[in-house]
Write a structure and sequence with these properties.
about 15% strand; flat; alpha/beta; 14 strands
Length: about 400
């Protein structure tokens, strides 16, 4: 069984070696993890042991989790069938779908009314609700809860469905984009190479053949070796990437872009944000609450020579861009639009790369708002879109 597990990890492009696999077998033989009080071996224990033995870099944790889940799918569901089947599991299979006529009857609340109504619901509600249009619950048309439909509501728990929540009452964990992702095509790199400005700076590390020949000839044939700094792309890039939420649908393509950017630009700085830039960003998603970088500090740290590139789907509630306190995760004091204007003012060479298909842009109000803030410098994440963006940034 573990041999197949090993090959599953390799198929997922995890850098797992035979030596690490043998280490895992030795750990199992030495009973590093043993049976619990019921005499059964827990899959959680094996998960942590195998991850420790086989994965040497935390950036591969997500690949490992997906491969582990794919291989052991269903194992964690083995249970005592004399127990009652969880009602929530049954309800998930009966998720309600609303017709176009039902959706049209649901009216949108304004921002102030929405927040005020939520406060009242917390004060009044005493029990769980499902399928209604008023209380905090699941599967209904209420603007509070999850699993149902409302054009602009506050999602409390559960997974996103209609991409229109103005607040998300849920602790979410995002994951860093993998910069070692193997590219499916070299064309992305070729498109990025339109943004180039070569220079020779730094220490003399490269042989200057022409100067060596000229100097040797002028020195009566005595060898006179001349060195010069290595030639490299001198363009400076500040990359700001949206992560989590609706961006999960675009992980593979953004990872390909991120990998290519790290290869092509020696002077690269990158940060993460969620949906819209506010007063802070971060570099590591696992430590995004403990290691924050103030946006003001980023504005002061890098000069206007940096090319500013946003990567995101710009798909959110317009409140998140235009309203103080509009962030789905916390009450930001200033609107995201204010921060966007500051960034584009400090860095005059800027562009937004959008992985959403360009055909749906006209149906997303938030994309239209962001396009206006970006002076229409928004380009699709396609080869043609990248070429146009790089050509604009190089002017």
């Amino acid at each position: 069984m573990l041999i197949d597990f090993f090959y599953t990890l390799r198929s997922a492009k995890l850098p797992v070696s035979v030596k690490e696999y043998l280490t895992l077998l030795e750990a199992l033989q030495a009973d590093v993890v043993g049976p619990n009080s019921d005499g059964a071996y827990g899959i959680d224990d094996f998960y942590y042991l195998s991850r420790t033995a086989l994965v040497k870099d935390e950036k591969h944790y997500d690949k490992f989790d997906r491969a582990f889940a794919a291989y052991f799918k269903g194992v964690e569901m083995l249970a005592d069938f004399t127990k009652e089947v969880p009602l929530d599991w049954l309800r998930k299979t009966l998720e309600r779908e609303f017709t176009a006529e039902e959706k049209a009857k649901i009216e949108k609340m304004g921002w102030d009314e929405l927040m005020e109504t939520l406060k009242k619901r917390f004060e009044e509600q005493k029990e769980r609700h499902e399928g209604g249009n008023k209380w905090i619950g699941t599967g209904g048309t209420s603007p509070f809860g999850h699993g149902g439909y409302n054009p602009q509501g506050i999602r409390i728990g559960g997974a996103g469905k209609n991409k229109s929540a103005v607040k998300v009452w849920d602790q979410r964990a995002y994951k860093d984009y993998d910069d070692s992702q193997e590219l499916g095509t070299r064309n992305i790199k070729v498109a990025l190479r339109r943004l180039r400005k070569f220079a020779r700076e730094g220490h003399d590390e490269e042989l200057d053949l022409d100067d060596t020949i000229h100097s040797t000839a002028a020195n009566a044939g005595y060898l006179d070796i001349k060195m010069r700094p290595e030639r490299h792309n001198n363009v400076k890039v500040l990359l700001l990437m949206d992560v989590g939420g609706t961006m999960d649908e675009h992980i593979q393509r953004v990872e390909e872009l991120f990998s290519a950017v790290k290869t092509e630009f020696k002077h690269l700085e990158f940060y993460y944000f969620h949906n819209c830039v506010y007063d802070f960003m971060w570099k590591n998603n696992k430590r995004r609450f403990s290691e924050k970088f103030a946006t003001w500090d980023i504005l002061r740290k890098y000069n206007k020579d940096y090319k500013l590139i946003f990567v995101g789907d710009a798909t959110m509630s317009p409140y998140e861009i235009l309203q103080p306190g509009g962030s789905v995760e916390y009450n930001n004091e200033e609107a995201g639009a204010e921060w966007m204007q500051r960034l584009t003012h400090v860095f005059p060479k800027f562009a937004w790369i959008n992985p959403e298909p360009q055909g749906v842009w006209q149906y997303r109000q938030s994309i239209a708002v962001m396009q206006q803030l970006m002076s229409n410098r928004m380009y699709p994440l396609t080869l043609r879109g990248l070429e146009e963006a790089m050509r604009m940034l190089s002017k």
